[in-house]
Amino acid sequence: MGQLIGTLQEPNYSRSLPPELWLHCLSFLVVEDLLTLSSTCRSFRFICKDLLFKHITTTIPSKRTVRHIFQPRQEDVARIARARRLLLRLHALQSDGDAREVLGLVETWNIKTFGSPAPLEETEIMQSYSKICFPFVQPSISIFLILPSCRNLRVLSISDIHMEEERWSALVKLPQLECLNMERCNLSSTDKAMTLKVVSITYETHRGPPLVPPPTTQLISSLFNLRHLERLTLLDLNFSDSFLLGLVQVGQFENLKHLSVVVPETHMDTLFAFLSRTPSLASLTISNFSTMAKPSMPILQSVASNLVAYDGFPTLIPILFPGRPVSTICLRMNHRTDSQASLGDPFGVYNNNVVCKALDACSASACLVHDLMLSPFHPTPDSMQDIVRIHPDLRHLRLDILRTPNINMDVDVEEPMSLIMDMLADNVEVRDSDNLSLHSLFLISGFLNWIANGHLPLPAKLETLHLHYYQKAATVCGDAAKQRPLVPKISAAYPALHEIEMGTTRWWREGDCWSHEVLTRIQL
């Protein structure tokens, strides 16, 4: 590594583009292409190194994988090779003084595991193992020893790691660390105060009794800094109640602007007690795993008085919206209103009257609603008419279409489900307005046809329309030939509209010309 770093001397750019332009152009390349380009000449090696080491992802071997390094099995050859390479790289980073230049370039580091997340303990190392040959057996420990050398590290994401005192101490030594994301991590107590602006704690599965006790008040006060914290995500299904109770006791979070939280059944009052300590809160997200309970006491107007964005259930709208300037709304319509029914079932949930009531309640906001998302959305002419009538000033609209019939809709429920699902298949084609049926609304292609043919209205001032399928990771609507004649018809009826996105397909307008793009990733 010392020889590599020694060759990275700054070249002469007098006959080339300025370095910042090269960096901008090359930033669009994937890692594999950057590696290939960096090996072509000295100049590109110098330019690419900043990009190659700016963002690092390290996948550490699990306990089972490391054991197999010493007792290999035929089917584990590839995993063992990966583990060996990782251990050697970590050893090189730790022992090579020249590696500090590389570590100084790192701004984002993602540490995750493959296989079982259980960490390897020293007592479990095979007796025949020689520490002279492999001094870094537990890679998660090695990485935390290296982290303090990353003087420019700003974002750290870790998963499946037991956060004990030694590792907290390593994080405190990072001078530029602003964002810490922890997924499925066990958090032990610490008295190391941190100055993080962004904290995310995610543990969205119940795995039986936790390995560690609930977070202590000391840990919460050390992790969540009163003066610095600006964005907080708490999606821990095991300890979300403990976090909320602890946060209420910490004090006033003057700079907290964004909160995403899962609220247990009996802690809605605790949530609003915490909101009373966040005077700058602008965005609130209530997780789908939360309950629909209402606070037991009236909420003062001073609580979340600056709220401009809400993502959650309609239940809290009458409480949060009056007198507050909420203009961006995402309504999670995936819970039954029937108290006898089980929660979390998105089928046959809300009829049009319930959707209309929720939309009407949003009008209690102190300002006009410009951004609206409904998830899931049961498309009917009546529900679209309600959106246009109640919120005519919408600029941005996103609909997560549920691709199954709602039993509360005017659908022939006696019709065999297999026939209905056949009608919802991707190869269903709507050839003209005469063939438009209610069933075609369950398809994005049919939905677009209804709009183009004037059977579904949109708000007159709408600028962007995003259509996706509910709970589908990749919504593929890539038949540009069928979409091309529809887009100009929609544009003529809605001149303010300049973008239509349908999962992996995006149409956008520049002047009078519409262009088509296939997205490589879903834009959320």
TrEMBL record:
Domain (F-box) ranges: 11-56
Species assigned in the record: Suillus luteus UH-Slu-Lm8-n1
Pfam family, one: F-box-like
PROSITE patterns linked: FBOX
Highest taxon of the lineage: Eukaryota
Name the UniProt record assigns to this protein: F-box domain-containing protein
Organism lineage string: Eukaryota, Fungi, Dikarya, Basidiomycota, Agaricomycotina
